[in-house]
Structures are given as structure tokens and as C-alpha cells.
Batch of 2 targets.
Target 1
Amino acid sequence: MATPLRLLSIIGARPQIIKAASVSRAVANLGDRIAHTILHTGQHYDTGMSEVFFQELGIPAADINLGVGSGPHGHQTALMLAAIEEVLLRKEHDVVVLYGDTNSTLAGALAAIKLHVPVAHIEAGLRSFNKAMPEEINRIVCDHCSTWLFCPTKTAVDNLQREGVSLDMDHVPTKDRPRVVQCGDVMFDNSMHFAALARSRATVLQELEIVGTDFVLATVHRDNNTDDPLRLNAIFGALLELHQRERIAIVVPVHPRTRKMMDRLLDPALFAALSTTQGFHLVPPAGFLDMIALESNARLVITDSGGVQKEAFFFAKPCVILRSETEWLELVQLGQAELVDADPERILSAAERFLRDGVPSCQPVFGDGHAAERICAELIKGQ
Ligand code: UD1
Ligand code: UDP
């Protein structure tokens, strides 16, 4: 029997836990072929930002939890880096698997490459071309530390090629000549896998007494939106105005970062109106099944989240993006999403257009729901 390939998945933030679920399912289907260790940095730690996803998505408990918690970028990343290095020095892992673009990704990439442990980056090649965004630095560094670059889209492959990465497949992948694989999106895998379960188990719509699809789902958590009082007030002011003009319910599962900044920065009258208006629901972060139920039933999604933008697309829902650019260009090019930044007029006009006209039906661009299987097969091939 072949020796198991020893993978170390490093996760820490909510979307990474969700992405790792696809890989952990694919690993389980391979029997003893892969030994999978999960390291949680502790970047996210509230039950509703971490534990709930392990439970709902059936992810084995983390083998290692660094308990790093929150802090300024440098401090948080440095704590993770030192602790991940200690784990890698034990030489118990053949490949480090990293997801997306958070500080946990950055720390994992730096720790691994310095110790010559090969890195596989899931969601490689995404670019916003905006280095003011902390995630842009993280993803560029991680890509250029990687031996395997697992791209969800053709756009991601093209971005890597423009940065000088060869697409040649006729070589053994190394950190100097990485292998680029367009494998599809592990988040699409999850959405397809859990859609039926969400239909039977999610309770959020009943709890909010929402009947049918007459509601808008909104999420806001990007630092440039939450930490800037003008932008934060503009976004929440526009959401309230949309609710009043269209007489449509709005559901906002609030990220803890946003909750903290709303308390500090939101105009008290606006905050009071948001909290007391019937049909405007500020709720705690949703679990994954509830989130899928909300996304697949809403008439419209308004968000600055990368993952939520894509999930809106998976469920053929229009999406108003509260950013000036996106890594997921296809959504905009196909007419399913519109970039509006934090501009109230643009938020309202895009939202009203989508509520009136809906969106065209689109061809799938995020693979076939088997990205994680492809990733595992490629890593086994490289063993
Ligand atoms: C991080 C990622 C971002 C990702 C997001 C997903 C980086 C640089 N950013 O942003 O790319 O889109 O996660 O949700 O890695 N907090 C809690 N409880 C928690 C977690 C966070 O209260 O369980 C609060 C703390 O006040 C913390 C703040 O949220 O300071 C921000 O958390 P942090 O992980 O630093 O960044 P996110 O904004 O969550
Ligand atoms: N998500 C969730 N509950 C929420 C908000 C988001 O389960 O209240 C899920 C969402 O369905 C998607 C992922 O979290 O799978 C996206 O993560 P997030 O918006 O935190 O970060 P981003 O994708 O922008 O990095």
C-alpha cells in the first residue's frame, strides 16, 4: 500500500473553515491515501464564526489550535508564523494546504517556504489589483511561495501567467516552477453539496417569519467599509432607504467586526432606526446552512464578501457589490453583479434595477462541484 500523503491544512477565518470542508470530504473518500491534519490558527474564535462550521459541515475537529485571536495585522501574523514554524519543524507533513487570502494564509505560506515544505494554494491567482486591501498582499505572497496553484477560474490562471508563472505541465512542480491547475471552486463544491440539506434543516427563514423570496440579503465586513465612518453610514443608510422605498425585508447577518464598528461609528439615529424598523433584520452571523438558505431564497444579495458574491452567482441571484473592484470579474462581465462601491445612489439604483429586471441565466464558470477531488488527485500524483 502507498504511504499516505501527509497534508497539513491551515485555516483560521470563517471562509477558510468552509473551504476546508470540501477538501476534508474529498480526503475522507480516499480512505487511507491521505493523512489530513487540520491546524486552526484561532483567527476567528466566536462559536458562530468557527465552531458552527465544523459541526454543520462535518469537518473533523482541528488537531491543533493556536488560539492566536484578534490583533493588528503584523502582531497577529507574527504570532501565527512563529507557532506554525514550530509545528512544521516536527517534519510531520509533506504539503501545507492554504486557503484564500487571510492573515492565516500569509503566515502559513511564509512559515512553510522558509522550511522548504511545499505549499498548495487553493484559490490561487485571484487579484483585485488594489494593494490597499490586506487580502491582496496575502494572496500575492502566498501564490509566489506555492508549488501547486489551484485556480478556481480562467481569469485566475491568466493573472498568474501575467506574473510570469509558467503554465507548462511537463515538469515536476517545485516552488520555483509551480504547477498551475484550473480545478474549479471548492466553494461551489460546498454549495452544491449542502443545498439540499439547507432546504431541509435551515431554520432562519421561519425564525425571521419570512415567507417566500421577498427579501434582500446583505453582508458587510471589509475593513475599508467597516472602519470608515462615511462608508459605513453610507452603506447602512442606503440599505434602510432601500427597505423603505421598495417595502422589502432586509436581512443582515452582522460580522463581529461590523458589530463593533457600528457601535462606534454609526450615526445613533440611523442605528436606532435600523434596530427598530420592522422588516429590517440585524442578526448574528449565520451558520452555513442558514446562509445557503438565505442566499438561495433571496431576491437580491448586497455584499462586500468574496464568498457571498460567488454564492449569489451559484444560486443565480443578482448581486450588488459594495466595492470598487472584484477578484471575481466573471460575475460582473456576465451581468449577474454590479460594482457600486459605498455610493448610496449607485447602491440604490443597482438594487432597484436588479429587483425589477432580475438577471440573465449564466453558464457555470466555477467548475463542476468536484474541485477538491481534483486537488487531492493532483497532490497524490506529485507525491
Ligand atoms: C478576516 C480576513 C478577511 C476575510 C474575513 C472573513 C484578514 C486580513 N482578513 O477579516 O479576508 O474576508 O476574515 O470573515 O485575514 N472578531 C470577533 N470574533 C471573531 C473574529 C473576529 O469578535 O471570532 C472581531 C475582532 O474584533 C477582530 C475583528 O473582528 O479584531 C476582525 O477580525 P480579523 O480576523 O482580524 O479580520 P476580519 O475582518 O474578520
Ligand atoms: N457566511 C456564513 N454566515 C454569515 C456570512 C457568511 O456562513 O453570516 C459564509 C458564506 O456563505 C461564505 C463565507 O461565509 O461561504 C464567506 O465568508 P466571509 O464573507 O466571512 O469572507 P470572504 O469570503 O469575504 O473572505
Target 2
Amino acid sequence: MTTNNRIVLSSDHAAIGLRQTLAAHIMTLGWEVVDIGPTTPESTHYPKHGEAAAQRVVSGECRLGIVLCGTGQGIMMAANKVKGIRCGVCSDTFSARMIRQHNDANMLSIGARVVGEGVALDIVDAFLSAEFEGGRHGTRVDMITALEE
Ligand code: RB5
């Protein structure tokens, strides 16, 4: 089990500002933030940023990951193609808490064109403060993992 306190953040061009705001906030919570960019506003391709963040998680370098794009959907789809990733898009705090508690999500995706900064910060807080409950939920997560084979 990975026990480090590192979290990777990445986005496409649509979410650079929100990503940097979230990174600063997450640091105040005691996490070591690995922000892998991008930092310049040119149009870029969300799959490569989702994949790059996902690799930091499955390698064990980072315990969790947060990715963002305009809707949160495309970068989530890309991250979930990496074996071992369970990434959910959240626009509300209930879902953000539940994807940790029930789905053992190791990545969170947020749509920067969907939610405002205040909601995004609350979503991140909900995600980071929740813990996986295990038990019957572990059985179901194992079934998700089995689909990768
Ligand atoms: C970029 O315009 C946009 O398509 C992207 O940020 C994201 O919303 C894709 O899912």
C-alpha cells in the first residue's frame, strides 16, 4: 500500500488557472503537490495530460491525482485507460466523498467550465478527507479491477 502524501495535478489549457488555485489550496492541507502542468495557455490535448498524471499514480510516486479539463470528462476518460486508475468526474461534494468511500477512486476529475472555484475547492476537500470503507465495496472494486484483465 502506498502511504506517501504526494498528489499529482494536471489539466489541459481550459483549466490552468483553476488547477493552480487548487494546487495552492491542497498544499495548505499538508500535501506535497506534484503539479505537472501545463503552465502556458496554448491549446493542448487532454489525453496526454490525463495519462501523464495517471502514470504518476500507478507508479506509486503519488498516492492520488486530480485532473481537470473544460468538462472534466475527456481527461477522466484518458486517465481511466491507464491500468489501475479509478477516476471519477465530480461536480458536487457528495459524489467526491463517495468515489473515495465506495469506489476507492485514486483520481478525481473536475470540469473547470462546469463548476466555479468555490465549489471546486469544496469538491477537493471532500475527496481528500474521505477514506475507502472497504468491506462489500472492496469486493466491487476488485470486480472493476478484474475487468482490466
Ligand atoms: C477543450 O476545448 C475541451 O474539449 C476540453 O477541455 C475538455 O472539455 C474535454 O473533455
